[in-house]
């Protein structure tokens, strides 16, 4: 990593670093609030003879958390590397806050923080030494670095861990240090390639909470994953890609309506008093409600998952059917997990379950 030209990622992972940049002679012009955080326009990329991206097209609005989802080999990492200026677009254009990733590479780099899917850490360093190293690489003056490091450790819920050695950290903690690293230059846009991969459920939830807090600070978060359900609760919008093409790009609500009529609702019942068992045949009773196609117990949270086709039977009739059974209903809400079904329809490859 060069100090004068802070890399936004592990340079070793770059295939073709964009080098024909034009150094800005004056500070970049202010960004209009309506300018898209990311614009990908008819982006194509071929590795030797293998076409990885074919006229990929989508926009990311500023301030949103935007999921980038696709099966293995769909082209997510290639797209991310082009957005973060580690590779040049062969065809098409990419702009970050209105700035071209080839012609305005310095301005783009100063506005982004990229966390690759695999990144090497200096395992013998303490957390503070590691972040201080990257702070220096980003050109932060020595006297301000400690304050910045304190801030990014707070943001990533790592305060008090600055003296821990990186080699002793769990995978979840290591990911947080990686996130702290990309926050060092206070980027407006975070590009995160599969940040939740390999994390246990608790670490995933904690990571998602941190990303929500970063959104609350006005940052735009672009996050890739194989797993749509992992992002559904987090994201405002999602782009689904398969075999290098965009299959869907829009809000989660638009994705829901683009999906087939099949939906899953989670019904939560007031638990029986004094540890008494749930009513017998509960599953069969729910299954017997007209229009219900599948019933199963929710594994992660309390409640039962009921699947039905809302184009065939209105949601309120299903709820009416549950209440008519005399069950003490305390919750009835749509499960975003059935987005997986939309994903399966939109992609040929399918989704890897968490
Ligand atoms: N350096 C490379 N040389 C040749 N082919 C490559 C190279 N990098 C990626 N590819 C191929 O390009 C396609 C897109 O790969 P990419 O890594 O962008 O997909 P991805 O969606 O990130 O996949 P994954 O989720 O598995 O990381 C894949 O078929 C992949 O094998």
Keywords:
single chain; about 350 residues; alpha/beta; Rossmann fold; Alpha-Beta Plaits; 2 domains; six-stranded mixed sheet; four-stranded antiparallel sheet; globular; disordered N terminus; disordered C terminus; binds adenosine-5'-triphosphate
Topology diagram in text:
Blueprint: E1 38-47, E2 50-60, E3 65-69, H1 76-83, E4 91-96, E5 99-100, H2 105-111, E6 112-115, H3 127-137, H4 142-155, H5 171-183, E7 189-193, H6 201-216, E8 220-225, H7 228-232, E9 237-242, E10 245-251, H8 252-258, E11 262-269, H9 282-287, E12 292-297, E13 304-309, H10 315-324, E14 329-334, H11 339-346
Parallel strand pairs: 3-8, 3-9, 6-7, 7-8
Antiparallel strand pairs: 1-2, 1-4, 4-5, 9-10, 11-13, 11-14, 12-13
Helix pairs in contact: 3-4, 4-5
């Amino acid at each position: 990593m060069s100090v004068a030209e802070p890399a936004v990622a592990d340079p070793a992972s770059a295939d073709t670093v964009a080098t024909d940049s034009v150094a800005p002679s004056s500070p970049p012009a202010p960004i209009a609030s309506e300018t898209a955080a990311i614009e990908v326009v008819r982006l194509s990329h071929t590795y030797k003879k293998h076409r990885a991206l074919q006229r990929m097209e989508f926009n990311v609005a500023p301030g949103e958390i935007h999921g980038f989802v696709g099966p293995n080999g769909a082209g997510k990492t290639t797209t991310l590397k082009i957005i973060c200026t580690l590779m040049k677009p062969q065809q098409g254009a990419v702009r970050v806050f209105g700035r071209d990733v080839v012609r305005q590479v310095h301005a783009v780099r100063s506005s982004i923080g990229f966390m690759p899917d695999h990144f090497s850490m200096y395992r013998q360093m303490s957390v503070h030494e590691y972040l201080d190293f990257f702070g220096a690489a980003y050109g932060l003056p020595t006297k301000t670095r400690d304050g910045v490091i304190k801030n990014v450790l707070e943001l990533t819920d790592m305060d008090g861990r600055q003296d821990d050695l990186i080699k002793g950290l769990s995978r979840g903690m290591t990911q947080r240090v990686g996130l702290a690293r990309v926050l060092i230059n206070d980027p407006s846009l975070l590009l995160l390639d599969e940040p939740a991969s390999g994390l246990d459920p608790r670490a995933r939830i904690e990571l998602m909470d941190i990303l929500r807090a970063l959104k609350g600070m006005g940052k735009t978060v672009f996050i890739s994953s194989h797993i749509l359900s992992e992002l559904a609760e987090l994201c405002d919008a999602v782009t689904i890609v398969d075999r290098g093409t965009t299959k869907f790009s829009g809000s989660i609500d638009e994705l829901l309506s683009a999906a087939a009529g099949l939906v899953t609702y989670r019904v939560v019942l007031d638990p029986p008093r004094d540890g008494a068992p749930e009513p017998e045949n509960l599953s069969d009773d729910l299954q017997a409600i007209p229009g219900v196609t599948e019933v199963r117990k929710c594994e992660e949270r309390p409640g039962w998952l009921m699947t039905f086709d809302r184009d065939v039977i209105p949601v309120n009739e299903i709820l009416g059917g549950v209440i008519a059974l005399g069950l003490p209903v305390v919750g009835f809400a749509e499960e975003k997990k059935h987005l997986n079904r939309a994903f399966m329809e939109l992609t040929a490859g399918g989704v890897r379950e968490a």
